[in-house]
Amino acid sequence: MNIKQLTILKTLISTRSYTDTARTLNYTQSNISQQVHQLETELQNNLFTHKNKQLVPTDFLIQLLPLINNYIKTHEEILNLSNQNINKGILKVAAPESILTTGLSDAIKSFISKYPEIELDIFNNTCSYNQTLLMDSEVDIAFVINKTINNKYINVNKLSTEQLVIVAHHESPDTLPELLQHDIYNHFVINEKDSTYRLAFEKFIDSQNIEIKKKTELWSIYTIKTFLLDRLGFSVLPIRTIATELQNQQLKIINPVYSELPCFHTFALTKKKGWDNPLLKLFLQEVNKFIK
To answer: Which intervals of the chain form a coiled coil (predicted)?
Structure first.
């Protein structure tokens, strides 16, 4: 097993085609087939099946994928260290919209300005999926908002404390019980189901037996805020994402009354390894300047 074979596997998983993989890696198709056959013989397992004339990874290969990603990433880092290219390379970053738009984008801008030869790949997903990407070695660093992180394979860097608030139009009632008495405001506008603060608020309303008449799921905090500004319901968001609207008195914080909402934190997560990635250190130095 070698880096060439593992790179072929990773590309095949992406393209699902021997022809496209050969074209992408500039190999012959017969060479691709030969390398896969050698790996299947060595591992004593099939790596792909065919379905509807397309390659499909076997369950065995899917289980191997995090290890393959680790191997490839380790190979790249060793080359960087051996060439002393501390200011060159690719850094893969995963973060939710709520962090990307409130501090992380400034850190990225500063980082790119200081280290133009380091390439950044940015992935915008939910917090839970970002952590999955990190564990599968698809990214180098994942940013999440959560109450706590418990994973023995992850380095946890706490960046800031996030106040979670109920928010609505500035002319709406001041408290959650009053707000829910109005049909126009008894409308929960929120992002995807895996959002950590959505899950926290849904647990909160279940514990208090609160009835929400309508729920709308959106995929953008900007769009959520547009709904609120048009008096189309209320939402629950980290306070840093609505700072401008609060300052301009367009939106306001609603008193939950029943009990306080849980406290959340912003974390930067990296996988524990036997060595340090110098690019991560440089990136975290910038992040700590902008997210506090």
So the answer is: none
Residues 6+ apart with CB under 8 A from 125: 94, 96, 133
The CA distances from residue 180 to 1, 83, 174, 245, in Å, are: 61, 62, 11, 22
Asked if 171 and 203 sit in the same domain, the reply is yes
CA distance 156 to 170: 37
Q: What sign has the CA pseudo-torsion 216, 219, 225, 229? A: negative
In the numeric block, which tokens belong to residue 107?
């850190």
CA distances from 257 to 166, 200, 213, 263 (A): 11, 16, 19, 16
The reply to whether 156 falls in a domain is no
Are the C-beta atoms of 192 and 98 separated by less than 8 Å? no
Domain count, the chain: 3
Any idea what DSSP says for residue 260? P
In a 3-state reduction of DSSP, which class is residue 53? coil
Q: What is the pTM of this model?
A: 0.70
Domain check: are 39 and 122 in the same one?
Answer: no
Q: How do residues 99-155 score in pLDDT, each as one tens digit?
A: 998 889 999 999 999 888 888 999 998 898 999 999 888 899 999 999 899 998 899
CATH number of 52's domain: 1.10.10.10
